[in-house]
Fold this protein.
Amino acid sequence: RSGCARHAQYRFISSCHPAACRFLSTLSFTFTPCHPRSGCARHPSPIMSVRNLVIRLTSRPKGLPSVENFKAAEEVFPSPRDQQVLVRNIYLSLDPAMRGWMTDRKSYVEPVKLGDVMRGITVGEVVESNYAGLKQGDLVSGVLGWAEYSVGDGKGLNKVVDVPGAPLSAHLSVLGMTGLTAYFGLLDVGKPRPGDTVMVSGAAGAVGSVVGQIAKIGGCNVVGIAGSEQKCDWIRSIGFDHAINYRSHLRDDEDEFMREMAKAIRKDARNGVDVFFDNIGGPILDAGLANLNIGARVAVCGAISQYNSVHAYAPKQYYSLLVNRAKMEGFIVFDYAKRYREGVQRLSKWLNEGKIDYKEHIIDGLGSAPLAINKLFDGSNEGKLIVAVGDEPKREK
């Protein structure tokens, strides 16, 4: 990568992103030449040996998150207590669920408190360990946060098992929470059978794309809904039988949009939908409900169209669940923690056999996170959205 690991730099752009650089300029410490690992002659950086860059949530977003909702700070290096480990974060996952964690309302986890380090799933290297199950140099993943270094409970971290041919970042994508969400959500909640028609909204996303490929492995007919012709072309290339660009059916009136989408689904899913894996919510959820078969299963993974809405969309087609004797069930991947090993093993096998393909959109620099997260909501990310926080350790050959 070119440029500075501390300042936000999109991997495919040659200069640092101005808004992220302005965000990091709020730091009040004296700046000296970059730490050796960043190697940026153009942008100065605080010395890393005694300070830790963290990003804290300072206000609740109204609508889309903005850099004003966060504050970057250089803080004293954290130290682990008994049963804890100090982790140097290497990659940070950016996920739609983070928008819910920023909101002060009841959910499956407590919201991030104002002033706390923003919550996030990372992959990193153990620097210091006071936990018997982990040692210095081990690679781990877990819910740590938006920081260059984090302290976590050892029992809450998962040791990363090297998968030949898979990069370390894959443990935040196809072999991480997104892949596991697809695996358990489809197979345990959707329960597809060979010959079923499986429909996936958000089909070009990190979760949806894996859902569709697992369904194809299981002998299903797969219909995907995505947000551009380019994304539709990609999901067809990885095995989806049909792809619907929802933007070509957008209307100002939500009910009209829903009806147009229902028609488009009916055209590609001529025999109806047996399994609907929904990541989007809103009118697209209604359009899917309008096409259910008798005994259909709806797996509610997310509702990304609603996360930043001031006025939530109320489903209108729920009556279809009654007349089709269908089931609609939400799920959280954390509920399957005891079975993660099973999921990773099967996903690794399919990956090595060439049955699953995936994309990662990696952005350089922790300071890019407050700006980059909105790529999840405007659809400009191309694959699993990940922030490169630090350098990977050298792997043994």
